[in-house]
Amino acid sequence: MDDERDTLVMITNNSKRKSKSNYWIIDTLESASFSWIFIDQSNPWKSSLSWLMFFVFTIGVPILSHIVYQCKTCDHSHRRPFDLIVQLSLSICSTLSFISLSSFARKYGLRRFLFLDKLSDVSVKVRDGYSDQLHRSMKLLCAFIVPCFLADSAYKIWWFSSGGNQIPYISNIYISHTLACTLLLSSWLYRTSLFYLVCVLFKLTCFLQILRLEDFAKAFEKQADVGVILMEHLAIRRTLRIISHRFRAFILSTLILVTVSQFASLLVTTETGSLVNISTAGELALCSMTLVSGLFICLRSAAKITHKAQSVTSLAAKWHTCATIDSFDDDVGPTEETPDANISDRANNHFNAHMDSDMDDGEEDELDNTKMVPIYKHTISYQKRQALVSYFENNRAGITVFGFMLDRTSLHTIFAIEMSLTLWLLNKTIGFS
């Protein structure tokens, strides 16, 4: 008994230590030396610094660079015919991201916004999983930002170093070009970081609900009261509605802005006489990949949590069916061939073994799978099970955008519309058919 108690205490301490070690990211974001850059609006001084940096790197530097470095007299390799689309696309998306982050920080604070204040109500497994995902999310953020920044750095360093006197400068050419290159790279890094940060935060909040759903699904594998199951699911649905309400404007605006940006890019690059090569359109391609990948993070995260939430309906229906079938088996009673055997348990074991041998590892969803579930028909009546299944069928949970459910079907619809518009535009510009 003492050994078991010591083991439990050790596991709990390790879990707390693990969570605290991963929350250094939150402490860093809230620190005085960093938080005012992106998030903190807690006092007028930090808010002024944050908005000043926003105006400098999102509005001031892009406008000046576009006006000063149009370089119409440069050779073909150093002209920037698509710079207006690049600057507008990045600046608008970063503006939307900054406004969203400022609103989140002012209303909720970072810890409450990421539901860290609710982790005391969930299991240790969910807390540990969320802690690990928090750390991986920061790695994901760096994995998207760093390659884009390095690629843009290589392009701008080449552009300034090889342009020479063709590129406008003030007084000393080396100091002027170095300073301008540094400001442009800082502006690019700032804008892409803002955009990716909101996308990754959305992914992180969705992942917590996935962990909660997976933990919630285990209620069907043990003796649980229908009221407890219902209250837990209502809490998850409420959290999903909160997430949807917080991010719906950002997701919809991002979808519209990225679509407009991509079609504008397609229109100018397919225009007759347009000069398209790696030196003139490289930055445009990098900008397009940045925006599309950020949108992909949001849509994929929304579709994944929606699919997970809707899988609960299938799990509940399967649980209800298994219990009902087992009830009928008990009403019939054991046959002479199997006087002492539990027919339903044998059928369940045979069915699970058969399906496990046919299915490859990792092919099934953890919730919506083909395995039978344990049956506790004597604990929960048929009427309660039927009522619970009816509730799940008529109360689908998931991420919504102004009432529009973001599931896999909606993603297919968005893709079909985008592809149709793309083919139509290509047909109008280059006669594609």
From TrEMBL:
Residue ranges crossing the lipid bilayer per the database entry: 51-69, 81-105, 137-155, 167-188, 247-268, 274-299
Annotated keywords: Membrane, Transmembrane, Transmembrane helix
Pfam families: DUF3537
Taxonomic superkingdom: Eukaryota
InterPro entries in alphabetical order: DUF3537 (IPR021924)
PANTHER family: PROTEIN, PUTATIVE (DUF3537)-RELATED (PTHR31963:SF17), RAS GUANINE NUCLEOTIDE EXCHANGE FACTOR K (PTHR31963)
Name of the molecule in the record: Uncharacterized protein
Organism this protein belongs to: Mikania micrantha
